[in-house]
Write a structure and sequence with these properties.
By secondary structure, the chain is α+β, with helices and mostly antiparallel strands. Helix content is 44%, strand content 15%. The strands form 2 sheets. A 9-stranded mixed beta sheet has the order 1-9-10-11-7-6-3-4-5, sandwiched between helices. Strands 2-8 form a two-stranded antiparallel ribbon.
Length: 414
């Protein structure tokens, strides 16, 4: 249990640290907002040249982000949504129009890791996906599941990497989620010829992995993660079906890195891109994203450490991103990783509208992802049933299976 009084005492003791951190973050944000606003009126070519000069000066090896021609049309890094509603009913009416007859898809997964409390090494991955055609009658949506065991043999074969079973199971879950996304991309291919509205596939996570940002389970199996993600991105390009990697709490610093490179300063930033767009400047309390639905211009991601799998045949980035305000202004916006071909074909605003519509229905989070997550979740009761089924299977096949007294105690107490 949590001892609340002890927590309160610790917060009080460390108050000065938190206050100083907040002050430093606000000052840093004001500085970067001023730099971003200084780029207003610049073209993509001008910003690219300035970034190239910064790279040549040895400030960094890559600029992190490069805006596309869209910045010349917008005149700044911010594309205002330009709509406001008095009631949630008005917002939902707009969302209905934005999503009507548009097929959206999302996949999400859960996993079971019995761990060392069970003598037979076995794990499982459950992936669910939700496909919604948004027809007026609400019919014909698809909600399906896939369940796979990770066997003892698989858990022992970790490609010679010092990885845990949890690392391997995490990889299997992501691979299954992306496999479900790829099946959707194949099903929707040809939507232009059929004169359908732009379909959108959601993936809960980034579509970019760089050697400088590998962590956790991705650090144990980097090639496998990169292969699964890049295969999906390339299939999106081949089928011409938009894909969105949705990151609700992004800690990326691609735009911040660009601002450092243009200013020819070595990065000492303590803020993230999302904090930047949620901030205002000196004498201006209004954040850069002043209204719900505002977004940044599309930028190609040229982050340091990106492997060849994330560049096309001409060496151009296969994936870019926008930031989108899906909650109240002043709160950190969501990051959307999107294949670059979507911007090249002028579909960014259409895709952004699909995401906005899903977030209205989902009260700030895409409804498709929310539904897939709800369908995929594995509860404590599910885990107990899993253990009982494995135990019955082990007994029927004369396999060794023992549950520790510690686990039995936990099940009884919870």
């Amino acid at each position: 249990m949590l001892y609340r009084q002890r927590l309160i005492e610790e917060l009080s003791r460390t108050r000065d640290d938190f206050v100083e951190f907040g002050r430093a973050t606000r000052e840093s944000a004001r500085d970067y907002v001023a730099r971003l606003r200084a780029l207003e009126g610049k073209t993509a070519a001008e910003i690219g040249r300035a970034a190239g000069e910064g790279i040549a000066a040895g400030v960094a090896r890559a600029p992190g982000a490069l805006p596309t021609e869209e910045i010349g049309q917008a005149g700044s890094f911010v594309v205002p949504f330009g709509r406001a509603w008095r009631t949630h009913e008005e917002a939902r009416a707009w969302a209905v129009d934005a999503l009507s007859d548009r097929v959206t898809f999302a996949a999400d997964g859960s996993q079971i890791m019995p761990g060392r409390e069970v003598s037979l090494p076995v794990a499982a991955v459950q992936v669910a996906w939700f496909e919604n055609p948004h027809t007026r009658d609400g019919a014909s949506y698809r909600k399906e599941w896939d369940f796979k065991l990770v066997t003892p043999q698989e858990l022992l074969e970790t490609e010679g990497v010092a990885a845990t079973a949890a690392d391997l199971v995490g990889l299997r879950r992501v691979e299954q989620e992306l496999a479900a996304v790829r099946e959707f991309l194949k099903r929707r291919e040809g939507w232009q010829q059929r004169r359908e509205r732009t379909p959108v596939a959601f993936f809960d996570g980034t579509l970019l992995l760089s050697t400088t940002r590998l962590r956790g389970e991705t650090l144990k199996f980097p090639n496998s993660y990169i292969a699964a993600i890049s295969e999906t991105v390339r299939l999106s390009r081949e089928t011409r079906v938009p894909l969105v990697g949705y990151i609700d709490q992004s800690y990326a610093r691609d735009v911040v890195r660009l601002l450092d490179v243009v200013a020819r300063k070595r990065s000492e930033a303590t803020i993230f891109d999302a904090q930047l767009f949620a901030s205002g400047g000196d004498g201006d309390d209004a954040p850069l994203f002043a209204r719900w639905g505002d977004r940044s211009v599309f930028c190609g991601c040229v982050r340091e450490g990106l492997t060849a799998e994330f560049r096309d045949e001409a060496g151009e980035p296969l994936v870019g991103f926008i930031y989108l305000q899906t909650t109240a202004p002043g709160e950190a916006p969501a990051r959307l990783d999107i294949p670059a071909w979507v911007a090249e074909e002028g579909l960014i605003e259409d895709v952004a509208d699909a995401v906005r519509g899903e977030c209205v229905v989902g009260n700030g989070y895409p409804y498709a992802l929310e539904t897939a997550d709800e369908a995929a979740v594995i509860t404590a009761r599910d885990r107990e049933q899993f253990l009982r089924a494995v135990q019955d299977f082990a007994e029927a096949n004369a396999l060794p299976f023992r549950v520790s007294r510690k686990l039995v105690s936990k099940i009884h107490r919870r």
